[in-house]
Amino acid sequence: MEEEFVMLSRTFAVVLIPFLLGHAVASTAVERPNLIVILTDDQGYHDVGFNGCEDIPTPHIDRLADEGVLFTNGYVTESVCGPSRAGLLTGRYQGRFGFNDNPSVDPSNPDIGIPLEEKTIAEHLKTVGYRSKIVGKWHMGSHPQHHPMRRGFDEFFGFLAGGRHYLPEEIYLDDFSDVTRNWDWYNMKLIDGYDRVGIDEYLTDAFSNEAVRFVEESAKHREPFFLYLAYNAPHGPLEATEKYLSRFSNIEDLERRTYAAMVSAVDDGVGRVLQALEKQGLSDDTLVVFLSDNGGSLKNASSNEPLRGHKGRLWEGGVRVPFAMRWPGTIPQGVVREDPVISLDILATIAEHSGVLISPERPLDGIDLLPYLRGEVEALPNRQLTWRSGSDAKRFAIRQGDWKLVRTVDHERGPSLHNLANDLSEQRDLGTREFETAAALSEDWEEWASELEPTAFPTLGKDKWWLRSE
Ligand code: CA
What we know:
- Helices cover 26% and strands 15% of the residues.
- By secondary structure, it is of the alpha/beta class.
- The protein folds into two domains: 350 residues, 3-Layer(aba) Sandwich (Alkaline Phosphatase, subunit A), CATH 3.40.720; 64 residues, Arylsulfatase, C-terminal domain (2-Layer Sandwich).
- The chain has a ten-stranded mixed beta sheet with strand order 7-6-5-4-8-1-9-10-2-11. Strands 13-14-15-16 form a four-stranded antiparallel beta sheet, covered by helices on one side.
- Strand 13 and strand 14 form a beta hairpin.
- Calcium ion binds next to loops.
């Protein structure tokens, strides 16, 4: 009886909401699935079981690929945290609004964040009745106007800045006003809603607990939900508890052992979230996406093999990430897809299937992946994926088909051209031999980049806001 009522009320909302908002009713069938995006931080391409990792078992993360789709060519929009998240959260290339670098965490600067005229995924989903929660790292501005609960989320448990210590005894500063040195904010307490709170457990476990609680509570609500579970693990500092470290006594290198423990804690959390979905009978109603925000870092003992490069570079190792998606009964199980997909596609997909109407003034840059995953179309469109680091053309990349033109700080002269089909590790520059391909890609990139804005805020480490004059 209760179930029938819930189903009826959802149908009712689907038909009425666009009408009430003054838009035409969406013509395609609207399913309004719940959405869970599990985003890890600086996890290497190779550091999940489904991409061949052997020293760190990730059985629960692997379940998402086993019971859904594994994307071997899954990308993010930048090789560092902030811009990558801004792209994922808005479904638009973040350079369109000048989010070109990691932002300063200065809480007094309202310009640091996703501009208010851009919409976050939570703001979009709110228009069609979703309840949303973010658990974990925000990094999209610390000024009150950019607080997640002012950017579409109904609930928030986590932190505003780009990183945090993991052990409860390291989390003690009450607020930004206690920050007197660079990086002190890694010691700040967490935020529950708008309140500062300490924790008495390992940070990753605290996030997993909050996520499970939200899934359990959501089962009592009629509305669909969106959970953005943005673990900061396995981003530095490398810190883990004995519970997880003891699983990896076989790894001699202490840094790799600690990193493995951190990934293993995330994997436990993913398992608990999937279990909660199952227990509440929500698995078939929930699209779960797993990915990392950028490639593994040189600082966290990660592995991006066999890819070249790492966090901070537009080589494949910086922007190609572990990426899997599950929606039982709707998308196939155990399928491997090699067409390039990108984090931008997450919002484009959920928008299409939840009835979100997108303003033509700010079109999404991703595409709905479901027709492809359901086999209704044979391949994804032969689109170009594009990247720009910073505000100029010194660091950029563009991929179309198997071709990739890339320029990083490692390049002494111009960009290099690679065919990823037979040069996955980007070792052989074919730019001279395939001059026309390189020139065409370069031209296309210039055209795309002409639509982007210069960086709109002070970047991390480039200001000293904590040196207050009183
Ligand atoms: Ca990151």
